[in-house]
């Protein structure tokens, strides 16, 4: 069915031309990823040109000082980068690692390094906020050594640039560096063939219908082409570039908004041009079917038999699930969130994604959440008024986020709360029974001597006879002579009675211990 859809036939050497590098900016939160993307973009807009309209389409191109183009992907964070990669989409050629000079290497800096390494993508360092009085770029360089990043000025291979997104200092050098790195990588593509690319972002636009930002990676995409992306297809009605201009075609490394899809494809979907509508239908119908089947397998489907459910319950005995619904503003974030949530569980607890989709939170989302005792996550979207009211009536919780990491941390904390605590035993002491008394109203009492440590009232005890544990429980009473005692120490005699147990004998050993509950986290 999919055969011959993408041509894996390599391009001829003479057909290959240099193409712009595709760059993703990664780094710790607040280190200036967004500011840097904005600054680079602003720097490039010729003043007065088109009123400086900057349109967010998920990616844009700028010219480096030498005039060659560079494409920047403008997606929300590492999770998006990784979820695209998890789907087999490789779009990034170079990662710019942003580290704030006044803050140094932080957890997400390390995470970014790991992501880039895992993807085999070279990294360029941008030490940002160099304008700040407490900026310490040298510290950044040294700290990075621990993470296997050796910058040029320290004898390594990683290009490094001191920049300020605020003042614009160093930005031209950074762009030049990217250009240099691209030349080293000898990035080339054949533009004289049918267009192929990857969906970076997709959304349902009120006025324009499904809108997908596509990064063209090979060939040239033209208006009028019939394209397939994942389970969706369409005839390209319009191509709109990052300046908001209509264009007729887009070549390698060019990001464009594609209008004309019949449905909203997913971020990471491969886009290919097909020869006819019939072929497009055939491919997408097949894919839609397999996608549905996959989803049913994951969510359990609506029409599973009782037997299936019973079996799942049995197999999943002990495994607790946190059902969630995810609604987000763009497909990229929704994918990223789903991917991240699917990863944070373990054998005992996990998040179960009932639905993940693009758009505001609707009444039907709330109904589904209510039925499954789930809560709803709104990422950069809000609930419609009716949905809000329905949620209040039904007691369905809606949590809003605008930062993926906050969301993931929060769910992690919730899941951690569902983990049963670890019990740790702390040995207190030991006593042995000398004789057994019968006390009216109390029942049997063991006359003991503490041989080691202490014995405490209310503590846990274990009764050991001939090296075999014959009872485990709690101490009901602890007496020293006639009086209640809180604790009795080594060498002293005492009387003990147990909760729900009377079958003790002279010669038994009593082990006394405390149990501490330790909360676990994921
Ligand atoms: P992100 O979370 O990595 O996208 O970081 P942002 O771009 O949102 O920046 C976080 C904060 O740092 C914002 O308040 C920015 O104004 C500030 N910031 C970013 N770059 C610079 C810089 O070069 N110099 C100074 N002084 N502040 C900056």
Summarize the structure.
With 522 residues, this protein is α+β, with helices and mostly antiparallel strands. The protein has helices spanning 33-44, 77-86, 107-119, 137-145, 171-185, 277-299, 306-315, 331-343, 363-371, 385-394, 404-418, and strands at residues 16-18, 22-27, 59-63, 69-73, 94-100, 123-128, 160-162, 188-190, 196-205, 209-218, 221-222, 226-229, 232-240, 246-247, 249-250, 255-261, 270-274, 320-328, 349-358, 375-379, 398-401, 422-439, 443-456, 460-465, 468-480, 483-484, 487-489, 493-498, 509-518.
Describe the structure.
The protein is α+β, with helices and mostly antiparallel strands. It folds into four domains: 176 residues, P-loop containing nucleotide triphosphate hydrolases (Rossmann fold, 3-Layer(aba) Sandwich), CATH 3.40.50; 93 residues, Translation factors (Elongation Factor Tu (Ef-tu), domain 3), CATH 2.40.30.10; 100 residues, Rossmann fold, CATH 3.40.50; 97 residues, Translation factors (Elongation Factor Tu (Ef-tu), domain 3). It has a six-stranded mixed β-sheet with strand order 3-4-2-5-6-7, sandwiched between helices. Strands 9-10-16-13-12-17 form a six-stranded antiparallel barrel. Strands 22-23-28-25-24-29 form a six-stranded antiparallel barrel. The structure holds guanosine-5'-diphosphate. The site of guanosine-5'-diphosphate has 15 residues, from helix 1. Guanosine-5'-diphosphate binds next to helix 1. It is found in: Cytoplasm.
């Amino acid at each position: 069915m999919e055969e011959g859809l993408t041509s894996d036939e390599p391009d001829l050497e003479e057909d290959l031309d240099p193409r712009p590098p595709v760059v993703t900016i990664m780094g710790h939160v607040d280190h200036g990823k967004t500011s840097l993307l904005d600054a680079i973009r602003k720097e490039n807009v010729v003043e007065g040109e088109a009123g400086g309209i900057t349109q967010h389409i998920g990616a844009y191109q700028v010219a480096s000082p030498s005039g060659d183009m560079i494409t920047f992907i403008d997606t929300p964070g590492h999770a998006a980068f990784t979820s695209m990669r998890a789907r087999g989409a490789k779009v990034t050629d170079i990662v710019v690692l942003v580290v704030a000079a006044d803050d140094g290497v932080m957890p997400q800096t390390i995470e970014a390094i790991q992501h880039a390494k895992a993807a085999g993508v070279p990294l360029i360092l941008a030490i940002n906020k160099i304008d700040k009085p407490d900026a310490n770029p040298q510290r950044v360089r040294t700290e990075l050594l621990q993470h296997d990043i050796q910058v040029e000025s320290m004898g390594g291979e990683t290009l490094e640039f001191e920049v300020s997104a605020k003042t614009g200092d160093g930005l031209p050098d950074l762009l030049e560096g990217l250009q240099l790195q691209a030349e080293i990588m000898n990035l080339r593509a054949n533009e004289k063939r049918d267009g192929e690319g990857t969906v970076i972002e997709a959304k349902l636009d009120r006025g324009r219908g499904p809108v997908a930002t596509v990064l063209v990676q090979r060939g040239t995409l033209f208006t009028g082409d019939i394209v397939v992306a994942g389970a969706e297809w369409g005839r390209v009605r319009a191509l709109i570039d990052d300046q908001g201009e209509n264009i007729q075609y887009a070549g390698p490394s060019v990001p464009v908004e594609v209008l004309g899809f019949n449905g909203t494809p997913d971020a990471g979907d491969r886009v290919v041009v097909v020869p006819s509508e019939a072929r497009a239908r055939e491919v997408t119908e097949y894919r839609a079917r397999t996608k549905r089947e996959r989803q049913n397998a994951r969510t359990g489907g609506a029409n599973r038999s009782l037997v299936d459910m019973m079996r799942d319950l049995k197999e999943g005995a002990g495994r607790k699930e946190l059902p969630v619904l995810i609604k987000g503003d763009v497909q990229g974030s929704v994918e990223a969130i789903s991917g991240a949530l699917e990863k944070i569980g373990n054998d005992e607890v996990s998040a179960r994604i009932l639905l993940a989709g693009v758009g505001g939170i609707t009444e039907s989302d709330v109904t589904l959440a209510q039925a499954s005792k789930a809560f709803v996550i709104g990422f950069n979207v809000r609930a419609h008024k009716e949905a809000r009211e329905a949620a209040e009536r039904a007691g369905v919780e809606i949590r809003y986020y605008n930062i993926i990491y906050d969301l993931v941390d929060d769910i992690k904390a919730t899941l951690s709360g569902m983990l049963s605590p670890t019990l740790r035993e702390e040995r207190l002491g030991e006593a042995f029974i000398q004789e057994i008394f019968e006390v009216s109203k109390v029942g049997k009492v063991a006359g003991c001597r503490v041989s080691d440590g202490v014995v405490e009232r209310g503590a846990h005890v274990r009764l050991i006879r001939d090296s075999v544990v014959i009872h485990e429980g709690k101490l009901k009473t602890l007496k020293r002579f006639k009086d209640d005692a809180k604790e009795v120490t080594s060498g002293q005699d005492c009387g003990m009675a147990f909760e729900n147990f009377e079958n003790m004998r002279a010669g038994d050993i009593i082990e006394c211990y405390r149990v501490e509950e330790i909360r676990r986290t994921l």
